[in-house]
Write a structure and sequence with these properties.
Length: 131
């Protein structure tokens, strides 16, 4: 997992393998731990608490939930076979992954997704280390 950011950075700098960069960005976000991971979760949770109730009252939906839906729609559009993934697609994948990991997507059905993805990643890492 430590090589994911380096490979992602190299592919981004060279401008190659756009769809692979998206998968690496999602894996990189899911594998973030330590201080950076806690800071990411704290920032997303803080954004939800600060803006959620006010914008929920004004617009009918919280900003993090609406932002997640817009970013996820753009990510799905960019990953469609008819469309080509661009440089922004990696950033979209990073943001969507951050919302999923922090659990602030605003969709109750997605709340267990973060735990599932983390356990899947831990299982996959353990399996790869045993080879």
């Amino acid at each position: 997992m430590r090589a994911v950011p380096a490979v992602l950075g190299l592919f981004h700098w060279l401008g190659i393998f756009a769809k692979t960069r998206v998968l690496l960005a999602l894996l990189g976000v899911l594998g973030i731990g330590g201080f950076l991971g806690r800071a990411l979760v704290w920032a997303a949770t803080w954004l939800q608490h600060v803006t959620g109730s006010i914008t929920g009252w004004v617009f009918g939906t919280a900003v993090p939930a609406a932002l997640f839906l817009v970013l996820a729609a753009l990510l799905i559009h960019d990953m469609h076979p008819r469309n080509g993934a661009s440089r922004r697609t990696g950033y979209l994948a990073f943001a969507v992954g951050a919302f999923l990991v922090a659990g602030v997507a605003g969709i109750p059905a997605l709340s267990p997704v973060a735990g599932f993805l983390r356990s899947l990643l831990a299982t996959l890492t353990g399996w790869l280390n045993s080879l």
